[in-house]
Design brief:
Blueprint lengths: L2 H30 L3 H10 L2 H7 L1 H21 L8 H40 L1
Helix pairs in contact: 1-2, 1-3, 1-4, 1-5, 4-5
Length: 125
């Protein structure tokens, strides 16, 4: 698989999982902590957050699809690196960074999903 394609998918995954964090998780955490006025100020400065929150299911679905595609690309990547020492070191560095970026994206997505969908169910009980 082409390296720029894999890098692009990782950054799109990070962007989509971060958007779930920004649209839903951060405002919900502020409200739970009693900082509702901070949320009002944040929405006043960035009214686009309302649009993101209105389309929350699509946002989370897109994030899940991007995580799945990116995870599949990580899993299907070639196991070996080139023999040349410089290229081999570069290959190992890219693999290491790719796994970390994917892991961070996954954690951000899980936090966003938990706060947006699981926490409201727990608070209603």
């Amino acid at each position: 698989m082409k390296e720029p394609l894999r890098k692009g998918s990782l950054f799109l995954t990070l962007l989509s999982s971060s958007s779930t964090l920004v649209c839903c998780t951060i405002p919900a955490i502020f409200v739970v902590l009693g900082a509702g006025s901070t949320v009002v100020a944040l929405v006043g400065m960035f009214p686009q957050l309302i649009c993101l929150s209105e389309h929350k299911p699509i946002l989370f679905l897109l994030g899940a699809v991007m995580l799945a595609i990116s995870g599949f690309m990580q899993w299907k990547q070639p196991a070996s690196c080139p023999i040349d020492p410089v290229l081999a070191q570069s290959c190992r560095t890219v693999k290491y960074c790719s796994r970390w970026i994917w892991g961070i994206s996954f954690v951000l997505y899980i936090i966003g999903f938990g706060v947006s969908y699981v926490l409201p169910l727990l608070m209603n009980e």
